[in-house]
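Supplementary notes for students who missed Thursday's class. We covered one full example, reproduced here. Read the sequence, then the structure, then the short commentary at the end.
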Amino acid sequence: MQAPDLDQSLLHTESSPKGSQFDAVYEQYFSFTWRCLRSLGVPPAQLDDAAQEVFLVVHRRLGTFEGSSSFRSWLFGIVRHVAFNQRRMVKRKTGRCEPLDSNLRSSAPSPHESAEATEAAAFIEQFLDGLEQKKREVFALAVLEELSIPEVSEALGIPLNTAYTRLRRAREDFRRALEQRRHQP
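Structure (token representation):
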């Protein structure tokens, strides 16, 4: 299910102070931002810093949003840039990927369901880590965030057919990864 786009009237009313606009944006889009940062490869230990950096940029640039694209597309552009910088910084500092946190918490009621959810999340993260960046972005937005392909195309600034092609190829890679996983002992 897609989250509704931000009420545009919040962004364009003269009587509404910038602080309340930002509060509305933060409340409505924090989860979207967090999920996107994670699916774009920001390590779990860096997610808090990355989310804070995104919303610092949003706070600074909120008045410049013109509405020529959807708000989520505009926000994703910021998220994408911050995620890229975070991954680059981690690579420079560590030179390798951090291990996945084995204590991922889930709201599933039973330990078995929790273990299954953790295993599935680890598989998705591993898959995304091995995916070419261009396909990764399309896959994360279209499959994980359930944006329409026209929205994905707009958010990434790529032609519509290119977005469809990248999504098709990413899905093929995902099917192959699932098939390989099934054949592992």
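Commentary. Residues 1-17 have pLDDT under 50 and may be disordered. The domain at 1-98 is CATH 1.10.1740.10 (Rna Polymerase Sigma Factor; Chain: A). If anything here is unclear, bring it to office hours.
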